[in-house]
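Quick one from the shared queue. A colleague (R.T.) flagged mannose-6-phosphate isomerase as missing a structural entry in our internal table.

Convert sequence to structure tokens.
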Amino acid sequence: MQKMINSVQNYAWGSRDALTRLYGIPNNQGLPMAELWMGAHPQNSSQLINDQKERQALCDLIQQNPAAYLGPQAQKGDQLPFLFKVLCAAQPLSLQVHPDKQAAQKGFAKENAKGIPITAKERLYKDDNHKPELLYALTPFKAMNGFRTIEDLQRLFTPLVEAHPDIHLFVEKPNLKHLSNVFLSLLSMTDETKKRALAVLQSVVAGRSDEPWSTIQHIASFYPEDPGLFAPVFLNVITLKPGEAMFLEAQTPHAYIEGVALEVMANSDNVLRAGLTEKWIDVPELMANVRFVPKPVSNLLTLPLQRENRQIFPVPVSDFGFSIYQLKSDGQLLTPNITCIIFCMEGNARLEQQGKKLELIPGESCFCSAGESSIRVYGKGKIAYVSHPPINI
């Protein structure tokens, strides 16, 4: 049970003040503060503070003694299987997908064989892992997630048939094959084809305040000439209320638009992009990793299981579990022998373990190794609890 020192990723789409307003994290450099990382990813590992007030990188500690920190997980690979973030989006993130595990392993090996440096801008596969994600809203959080139903797509594309021949073909014969064709065609547009399509889109969007047109107007203020402006027509647009969550499967196109959220994922940084970004775009590679599975927006929420003062958000992967605890003044025991990160969301959390005490205030977190005895947590407020293996009971 050790307090963590976590660092911030300064991506251009990040907020300059959200982490300061919510958690008092200073922004001395005045840069966009996009993500607070909690975990052991080698690109940005958290540090732990030991009893001698010394700092050590969590990824190094795990490598030195995997069994002590990860328990049985060490038999499957000497890595913490999840990464935990506070994500602060002040403007839209890239239109993207994450590869599944098989594609990640293949892509990582292929780019290694080509000698592409991990830090190269054109590097797509930073590791050999998949990246399923759970997003839990701390503020109203707007996002796109998964393809709309065929009926919804046909209705929304009908006023856009003059933008591109493949849109006309899809509206005439709406099916998954034509959906795949029009998705590829629109994301690959250049020059006059792109100019014409965006002009038609803009004429349809003008003066509209309903969805998805209002979202397109918002994104256009950042990326006015990007083919990704068609993404809100293709994808479900959803605004999560604080306390709501959704899961993002591998090979599902998505983009975050605006808001602050907790994000839990498998320990990976693999992102394939197709638009709405200044970063490297590879539409063919993204297309090779997209599943065209329409999903109604009503199916996007991940509904929690209520267990007394605990909300458990079930996920269909074994990489992590995610829960929210409403703290009790008389305390409660957390599950022993679990590798976990505890993040204080609000109030304060006091943790005790075999006489050792630790206090967390909002924005602070601690790491608990596998094999440790039970931890009792007291306080008033909320904590987020990310664990491996998942605890869904």
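The mean pLDDT is 94.
The radius of gyration is 22 Å.
Added to the table.
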